[in-house]
Amino acid sequence: MNDRYIYPDQLEIRTLDRPVNATIRVPGSKSITNRALVLAALTDMDVPMTIRGASQCEDTEVMVRCLQTLGFSVEPDWTNNNIVFPFQEGARVPAASADLHVADSGTTMRFLCALVCAGIGRYRIDGSMRMRQRPIQDLLDALNQISGVRARCERDNGFPPVTIESSGLRGGRVSIKADVSSQFTSAILLVAAFSEVDLTVEVQGASVSQPFIDMTVAMLAQWGVHVRQVGVGQYTVASEDIGHNPMTYFVEPDASAASYVWAAAAIVGGRTHVPGVTTDSIQGDAQFTQLLEKMGCEAEIKSSEFVIHGAPLHGITADMNAISDTVPTLAAVACFADSPTTIRNVAHIRHKECDRISALCTELRKLGVEVEEYTDGLNITPRPMHGAEIETYNDHRIAMSMALIGLKVPGVIIKNPGCVAKTYPGYWDDFQKLYG
Predict the structure, then answer these.
(1) pTM given for the model
(2) CA distance 285 to 321
(3) Is the peptide bond between 161 and the residue preceding it cis, with omega within 30 degrees of 0?
(4) 350-385 per-position pLDDT tens digit
(5) Residue 424: is its pLDDT beyond 60?
(6) How many Å apart are CA 166 and CA 183, to the nearest integer?
(7) Is it the case that residue 159 has pLDDT exceeding 60?
(8) Quick one: three-class SS letters along the chain?
(9) What is the mean pLDDT of residues 258-272?
(10) Contact, 5 vs 427, CB < 8 A?
(11) Active site residues per annotation
C-alpha cells in the first residue's frame, strides 16, 4: 500500500483567519483510473501502453493487485503516477481460478465481477467487513443472464463474498437495476466490447449517478468503442469493437477531490484554483461548481481550470443524485449559509463506505448544526457552531468534508484521518496549502 504518508490517530484542524488564495493540483481521478485499468487489461496490444496521471490510492492499488493475481501484466510506476501494460494478448483472463480481495473498494468489486466473466474458470471475490454489507445482487442477476456465466453470493444474502464461474463472455442481452449503484451498469459496459457476440444492456427504471455511466461511455469512445444508445437506458456494444489501442492514456484530475478545494473558498472567502478540471471534463462531479454558484460564489472558468471565488452564502435546494459523492462537501458548505439547505434524491449514499446520510446528520449535530434527516437526504439549518471530535466511520469523504468546517470553527478534531488514503492519500498535505 501507499507508504508515503503517515497519519496520526486524530487531527485537530487549524482555523484560517483570512481569505484563502491557493492553487492545488489534485491527484488523478480514481474512477477514471480504475476504468482505464479494466480496459487496458482486456485490450490486445503489441506495444506497451501507459496510463499517465494515474491515481495512487487504496482503491487503485487494490485493482492493480487483483489484476496481477488474475495473471495480467501490470507494472505500476507510482513515483511518476504511471501504470504500464507491456505486450499482452487481451480479451481473456489469463488465470483459470483466483481468490481476490478488494478491501473497501466498491469500484473494484463491481468491475471485477464483470471482468472475470471474460475468463474461463472459477473466481472468488471478497472484501472488508463493510464490503460484505454493500449490495451486489443486482449486478449478479444481470451477469447470470449471460450464457455461460454463473454468479452467486456465497451466503445467498445479496452481499459479498461472490463466486463466479464462467466459460467466457458470450454477449447477448441483459437487463439490470441501477437504483443502488451506477457501477453495476458501468461494469458490464466496460467488458461488453470483449464479448463473443454483441451485448445489449437495458437499465430498468431510473439510474443513480448517471454521469458515471456517461463517463464510462466516454472512455469507451476514447478506446475506439462505439456504444449505441437507443432510447433511455439501453446500450448496445458490438463485440470486438475496439477501434484502437491508445499507447498513452491520460487521466483527468479528480473532480470529486477538487470539490474540497473549491469548497474551502466558499467557506472562508478568497479563491482557490484547481488546474486541469474544466468544462470539458468527462466527470460529472465537475458540476459541483454550479451548486456553489447557486449559493452565491463566483465560478471563473478558464481554459484549463476552474477558479472559485468565495462570497456570502445562501441556502439552496439541490437534487444531488447525479453528483452524490459531493453531498458531504455541500453539507459542509451549507453550515455557513444564511438560510437552510436541502439535499434530496440521494438515498443510495446510505450504501457507500458508510451510511453517509446518517453519518452527516450525527456529526453535524455534534458541531451545533440543526439537521433534519430524510430517507433520501437531509436539511441543514445553520446555527452557531463549536468544536467537536468527528467520527469518520472509516469513510474518506466524511473526513475530508468535515475538516473544511474546521477552517472556520475552532476545535474540530478529525478521528482516523488516515481513512483518506482510500482515494486521496495526500489530502492533508494539500489541505495545508490552504494556509499559504
Answers:
(1) 0.96
(2) 11
(3) yes
(4) 999 999 999 999 999 999 999 999 999 999 999 999
(5) yes
(6) 21
(7) yes
(8) CCCCCCCCCEEECCCCCCCEEEECCCCECHHHHHHHHHHHHHCCECCCEEEECCCCCHHHHHHHHHHHHCCCCCEEEHHHCEEEECCECCCCCCCCEEEEECCCCHHHHHHHHHHHHHCEEEEEEECCCCHHHCCCHHHHHHHCCCCCEEEEECCCCCCCCEEEEEECCCCEEEEEECCCCCHHHHHHHHHHCCCCCCEEEEEECCCCCHHHHHHHHHHHHHCCCCEEECCCCEEEECCCCCCCCCCEEECCECHHHHHHHHHHHHHHCEEEEEECCCCCCCCHHHHHHHHHHHHCCEEEECCCEEEEECCCCCCCEEECHHHHHHHHHHHHHHCCCCCCEEEECCHHHHHCCCCHHHHHHHHHHHCCCEEEEECCEEEEECCCCCCEEECCCCCHHHHHHHHHHCCCCCCEEEECHHHHHHCCCCHHHHHHHHHC
(9) 98
(10) no
(11) 325
Q: How many CB atoms lie within 10 A of CB 224?
A: 14
Torsion of CA 297, 349, 255, 101, to 10 degrees: 160
The cell 491520460 sits on which residue? 250
